[in-house]
Amino acid sequence: MADMTWTIAPEPYDSPAAAALWRAYYTEVSDRWYLLHEGRRTDPAELEREIAAHPGDDLAPPGGQLLLGRYAGAPAGSAGVRLLDADTAELTRVFVLPERRGRGGAPLLVAAAEEAALALGARRIVLDTRGDLVEARALYARLGYTETGPHNTDPYAEHWFRKELMPARAVN
Hints:
Layout: E1 6-10, H1 16-38, H2 44-53, E2 64-71, E3 74-83, E4 88-96, H3 105-119, E5 124-129, H4 134-142, E6 146-148, E7 159-164
Parallel strand pairs: 4-5
Antiparallel strand pairs: 1-2, 2-3, 3-4, 5-7, 6-7
InterPro entries: Acyl_CoA_acyltransferase, Bact_Acetyltransf, GNAT_dom
Organism: Streptomyces capoamus
Keywords: Acyltransferase, Transferase
C-alpha cells in the first residue's frame, strides 16, 4: 500500500513541479473569475502572458520561500511567502490540486508558510483573496486569520487577512 501522507519542503520557484502547480493554480483562479464575470474561460494567450509575467522569483530566498506539498510522493500543492517589510510577510499561491483536496494539505501548507515567514524574520503575515474563493476565506478564518482592511491595491483582491505570528515554544 502506498504511503498516503503529506510532506512539505522548500522548492525552487522555477522547478518543473513548482511551474506545473503555478499553471494549475493560475488556470483555476483565472477561469473561476472569467466564468463568474464574463461567462467564459481564460483566453489561452492571456493565460500564457500572465504566467510568464509572474514567475515567482519573489518567492526565492532571501526575501521569500516557496513550499511544495507532496501527497504520496507526488506534487500536489503549494504555498509561498514573501517579505513586504522587515516585520510583514505575505502569504500567496496557497493551492492544492482538486484531486488532493479534503486530505488535510492546505492547513499543513499554511502552517509551513507561517514557519517560513517566521524564519524570514516576519512577526505577522497578511494575504488577500477574492470573494468568490469562499473555500480560501473559510480556510484562513479557521486557521486564525482576521479579516482586515486592504494592505495592497491588487484589482482582484476583495478580502484581506492578517495573523500575528508566534514563534514555536521549545518543549521541555
